[in-house]
Design a protein that fits this description.
Oligomer: single chain
Shape: globular
Largest sheet: 10 strands, mixed
Number of domains: 1
Distance between the termini: 69 Å
Order of helices and strands: HEEEEEEEEEE
């Protein structure tokens, strides 16, 4: 007995969803985030988000962006000091090496968070969705800490 076309179509659609789902998971599944926190500054000043990342895959992974429903804008930045002058610039990505680690940390790479809605206060937990160069995403919970936190 030959399978009906609708059954074949259903099986094909299910296989396609499984394959597509695997492709979407991608790099985000190989990266573990820990020690995730946000430095909350007074008033409407931008906040910085920091975390430690470990990449379990055999290839480098690139963090390319972030977003959060609690902030109007989130951008990947890097702070540096050159010639005694501090500067901060938006960057397109932060590499996490194969079987290695990388950090978002004060004075280096970080996620700049602007336009909190509503205000984020120390003790809040904020979910930030991290984006990777392969199009995958990972939700990470960051704990808000006061401005003097290290």
């Amino acid at each position: 007995m030959m399978p009906r076309p609708s059954l074949l179509a259903a099986v094909a659609a299910t296989l396609w969803l499984l394959i597509a789902g695997s492709a979407i998971a991608g790099d985000a599944d190989t990266v573990t985030a820990s020690n995730a926190w946000i430095r909350v500054l007074p008033g409407n000043l931008p906040a910085g988000a920091f975390a430690d990342f470990t990449n379990a895959s055999d290839h480098a992974v690139a963090l390319t962006g972030a977003s959060s429903t609690r902030y109007g804008q989130a951008m990947l930045h890097r702070s540096s000091t050159e010639g005694g002058m501090g500067r901060m610039e938006a960057v397109d990505k932060m590499e996490i090496p194969a079987h290695g680690s990388a950090k978002l940390s004060p004075g280096a790479y970080h996620v700049m968070l602007m336009q909190a809605k509503p205000a984020v206060v120390p003790g809040d937990n904020v979910v930030i969705t991290l984006s990777f160069s392969d199009g995958s995403h990972k939700d990470v919970t960051f704990q808000a800490r006061p401005a003097n936190a290290l």
